[in-house]
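Need tokens for this chain, all 288 residues.
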Amino acid sequence: MRTTAHVRLPGADATLEVSASTTVGQVRLVNEDSFVAEYPVFAVADGMGGHERGDLASQTAASVLRERLATGATLTAAGVLAAIEAANAAVHELSATFGDDALSGTTVSGIALVSTDDGRSSHWMAFNIGDSRVYTWNGRHLVQLTVDHSAVQELVDAGLLSEDEAREHPDRNVITRALGAAAAVEADVWLLPTQSTHSFLICSDGLTKELADEEIATLLSSVVPGMDDDDDGPAGALVRAATDAGGRDNVTAVIVTLQMETAASDGDGTHTRGRLAESLLEDTTPRA
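Here are the structure tokens for all 288 residues:
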């Protein structure tokens, strides 16, 4: 799918371009990935393979986020966190329906447009639980924003594995945090100021297993900004490339581009974005 819409932010108008695509891949029989791509929330959930009903877990998480956050209005950071907690509770309850030894779980990573406390400006809130990822993209550089909650990431952080080694490590599918794994879960959160043009890639690990960041950036540079002629836009191009490269897992990608048409003003004739960025960038590290 792909959409283009005009949205009204506090003190600014903007154009929002979204493309999203998902596939079961070439090996799996069931697609355990789900996504949300409805303003102002965009997320990917990857059900835990090998556990009970990973597809239902990811669908449940996506449904809760969609119901609570896809309002068409700018959200609050507290509201996003509350929705993540509700999604965790809903997925956690699934385990009880499958028996004492069953476990349903899913990753969730995404972004939401949230307002500042005074309601006069907005910023992006990125969130992550598990090893699905959020990247920023400026047309030249692809930068991973989220940090994987995974066994191999802990080894990379400890200096025991390189990034290339982690991609092929036998424990690369082991995650250390997931929705539904416990009665309570804490998301990592980043806050970023809105910019004149800002693009994000949200994806399941089925994409990053098959394509290195450099390959993803090369593909994005040919299709963003601007959409291609396919119904699923640049997200579809990434998903097809990952499938062609092996498609060993389900593959899902959501690409969001927000282009400001008029800049927000703080009421005294000056732009607020610089001061907003300065204050928010102090918080661009994980909450956990």
